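*** Residues and shapes ***
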Amino acid sequence: MLNGIVDIGISSLPLEHRGVLVHWIGETACVAAVRADDPLAQAPRIALSDSASRRLVTMQNPYRLRPRLDSAFARAGVRTAGVIETNSSLNALGAVRAGLGLAVLEPVTALGLPVEGVVIRPLDIRIVFLFGVITPEFRPPGAVTVAAAQALAQTAAEILPDFVLHDASQHGAIFQALYDVPHDVLNPIESTPREPRHHRLIESTQRPRGARSAARRRPLSSTCPRGNG
């Protein structure tokens, strides 16, 4: 995006990069992914407690979705048998299909790019996922790019059942709410290769310790050996 190779992109928050124009911000809820033959696939909704003593496949990046996942599991008092980390939602879905665990992840990829043999279910609690459409700031978007940004918002509203559209000007307020959560951890770790509405996002009683603290998280129990990727 910053080198001008592409005209439009979609990215999770935070989106405060010099040279990037944010068109809109979308809010939705994370989902659970299980193998089609998993008994949980028959349930209309999956609870965080269902992942207790099971291996969890989740996101690795400590500056985006991961802190909110950590916080949700810590508040629910749920301990997993281990965690496989990846920076790709498609990798997470592939791990679920291979029978490596249950995944909790963002719904844009999970619902927008269905993977055969994997069932997506809503969670019993709301874990917010935020993303936006961006274009290069140094190149004013043309009519086709603007139309594409609008079409993406419409498609998101159709695919994501609880989608909420926010004005791009709300990024600062959303960013603060986004990190106003405790930086807890998920347990042992294994790594793998129209008019927008303003909406209250997150409630918390604990102030953030800063983005850098998330990168120095320690697992609550012993760390599993890391794989490639």
